[in-house]
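User: Is it possible to get a 3D structure for a protein together with its bound compound? The compound here is flavin-adenine dinucleotide. I've pasted both below.
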Amino acid sequence: MTQIVVIGGGNAGLTAALSARENGAEVVLLEAAEEAHYGSDSFFSGGLFRVAYDRFGDLEAIVDDLSIAGEGLDDFAQYEEADFLDDWGRVTGYRLDLEIAEHVVAESFETLKWLHETGGVPFISPIIVDEHGRARHSRPGWHGGFVEVSGAGVGLTTSLQKAVAAAGVETRFGREAVGLARRPELGGWTVTARTRGGGEEVLEADAVIVTSGGFQADTEWRTRDLGVGWDLAKVRGSVHNTGNGLRMLLDHGAKAVGNWSGCHAVAWSTGSGDAGRPDANHVFERESHPFGISVNSLGERFLDEGEDFGAYTYAKYGKVILTQPGQVAWQIFDAKTVGLWTDEYRYKNPEAARMQADTLPALAAKLEPRGLAATDRFLKTVDDYNSAVDDSIEFNPYVKDGKHTNGLTPEKTNWSQAITEPPFYAFEVTCGITFTFGGIKVDTGGRVLDRTNRPIEDLYAAGELVGGLYYFNYASGTGLTAGAVLGRAAGRIAAAS
Ligand SMILES: Cc1cc2nc3c(=O)[nH]c(=O)nc-3n(C[C@H](O)[C@H](O)[C@H](O)COP(=O)(O)OP(=O)(O)OC[C@H]3O[C@@H](n4cnc5c(N)ncnc54)[C@H](O)[C@@H]3O)c2cc1C
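Assistant: Yes, that's possible. Here is the predicted structure of the complex:
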């Protein structure tokens, strides 16, 4: 029986392990975290998967309950493969690895069906009916085809961990893979893992699948590759994703590809505390910027909050916040937008770095001790913004409404409404890094390729450490989908090796 070692137990690793086992291999999964402190990025995630479908009703094969009716449901009637690919390509400047992206898109539906049926993942539809009787995504202003996991990332990883255990995968927690050596005559690999307390464990494998994430949790590497200031970003997810798996693959000749100076980084509440805690997960995300304005400590706006649907800007705005003085900004809203905030703002952790006041000067007074250095400028910025809103266009949160400002730098190009209705709110945000974009090249079977694009024998990879999928920006929900598609393929092909 083929012996497979999977390194890293997040979405990609669990999927790969399940698939390899299903295809007859004996599988050991090494996970750096202790079981009691397990916290992969997948665990911390929102559990949102992007998926292509021809008819909304087709999603019945993936989600448990699709009974929903409401005006606007037609907006979700289909999300074809071409739409998925266009959205992904557009936000990455069409630099993405098209072969892999096409494969991920084409396999997205079948893979999620398999995750549901074989992995027991409890998918639900994110489409809800809002207080106006209108069908919309549970994240207002979100765009694209999605399913999400009941219980978010915790629901995802818990169900996959159960499924791999039931299938007979042996998971060893508290094992950080630190060495990978080719077996000269036998083929395959020897994997060395460090155990807690400094011990070492050596495993023999016919094939190895590396799914240990990017290098975002290594402050030094992150700063070296992403640049000045990135040492100051908050890491949103796993403390173990320090790139050591990536390093091992590079050392064995894997081809480095993708946007090594780029990463996924969001507006992240300054109230989040340190990363790596089970409660420090996606609930600190602050992605409702399209419905307000963002202001820095000099009292100035610094980005077009309404450039695109939040789904296509949230992952690049963290970087812009990092370049503001003190790496801090405030998202400013008034009362009429409260219903448009994502759940994270309203009730998941409502106290985190949130200020509220009945007048704008009173709100500014609350920001001063937190670093607002130019109150007059702040008030003028809000005033100028309010006067610049084009009132001839109707506000519509369900589409890119083109309701813009006139004469500002930068302009706000959609969803501009004057901030006039008390109470007023300020959410304090900094830059939260999610994962790095640079990685290694794989083919559609998850085989790791060398610098001449030939497979390195018996070596596979999936998940965050695959390069070439994202440049500058990211389309929400593609990380989990890409990890599952390539993880499943890698498991199947490695099992047959
Ligand atoms: C807060 C947050 C919210 C997110 N929300 C979404 C979302 O809703 N939808 C979406 O598509 N994407 C989302 N993402 C991104 C998504 O989570 C990642 O793209 C995806 O989970 C990566 O999966 P992975 O298996 O590659 O990595 P991970 O899930 O991070 O798994 C890697 C595992 O490898 C382990 N490891 C590291 N080094 C070693 C080693 N040397 N030996 C053994 N084990 C090791 C780590 O402990 C970790 O458990 C989110 C990310 C975060 C942080």
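The chain has a mean pLDDT of 95. The longest strand covers residues 424-436.
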